[in-house]
Amino acid sequence: MKIGFVTAAADRRLLDERRGTRAMMWIMAIMLFLTALAAALGLATLTATTLLDRQLVGRLTVQIVEPSAPLRTAQTAATIAALRGMPFVRDAVEVDRDRLARLLRPWLGADGADPELPIPAMIDVDLASGTSAAVAAVQAAVMRAAPSARVDRHESWMSPVSSFMRLVTWLTAGLVALIAAATAAVVILATRASLETHRETIEVLHMLGSTDVQLARLFQRRIALDTLIGGAAGTVLAGLVAAAMGARLATLGSDLLDGLTLGQRDWALLAMLPFAFALLATVAARYAVMGALRKIL
């Protein structure tokens, strides 16, 4: 099947209406604007989910909940020494008490900074491998050094967030597919309406020897051009909105939201949307014309 995106001037004069009445270009601009926004959200969420999973794998937090301060300090030092001696532990660092006080301030207020307050000691552990065997070995070593300690996997308590972000990615993918299907339906309806509008012209062309394939090319070229121009405008506008939202998210200072960014690959995929929708519209227009011409003529 031959597909052309450049319409000859004679073809445009033959089937084109006044520029102000060509609603297809505006419809495609709206369709591509919505599609590009949904795709940008899905791609950014996918990037953030991948980054979150990479950060959480092999990350542990050890809590030393011993109420006695001297014993808690001794157990913390022993635990860090034991962890740093394990081959699959990249690093084990005690969380500063001032940082813990800042984290507790929303609940305890100024009392969180009281040196007499028995705040559990916290140790951040970074594993080279986040396998269950490695986590079990860490737990065993921690329990030997500090029997009252508690080991938490970041992956376990952040998994609901990761699952929700994956759900958002799949929902946006479904939304893009639905918009693409709606676009194909709009193209078919618009093509059939245009066929009725130019019915007499088509009959004359048939009498002059034009084939169904030649007539179909006239319509599919025009649909492709409208889709490409309108889609490019809608995609550019959506890209500007996505870039503005990304800049706004960067000012919030959230580690999770900072991951909602678009990389070079994502921008390249967004730039391909007008061409993909132009191809989709061309195929839909061709089959709509061929099917209608068999019934009309």
Task: Name some characteristics of this structure.
10 helices, 4-stranded antiparallel beta sheet, 8% strand, disordered N terminus, 4 strands, alpha+beta, 297 residues
Question: What percentage of the residues does DSSP assign to strands (E)?
Answer: 5-15%
The Rg value, from CA coordinates, equals: 31 Å
As laid out across the biggest beta sheet, the strand order is 2-3-1-4
Number of domains: 2
Mean pLDDT reading: 76
Query: Helicity level, as a percent range?
Result: over 70%
SS-based class: alpha+beta
Number of distinct helices: 10
Distance between the termini: 22 Å
Number of DSSP strands? 4
Q: What this model shows, in words?
A:
The protein is an alpha+beta fold and 297 residues long. The chain has two domains: 9-54 and 159-296, no CATH class; 66-147, no CATH class. 71% of the residues lie in helices and 8% in strands. The chain contains ten helices and four strands. The protein has helices spanning 9-15, 23-56, 69-84, 97-108, 132-145, 154-197, 199-207, 212-250, 255-258, 264-296; strands spanning 59-64, 89-94, 121-127, 149-153. A four-stranded antiparallel sheet has the order 2-3-1-4. It is rod-shaped. 30% of the residues are buried. Mean pLDDT is 76; it is low at 1-8.
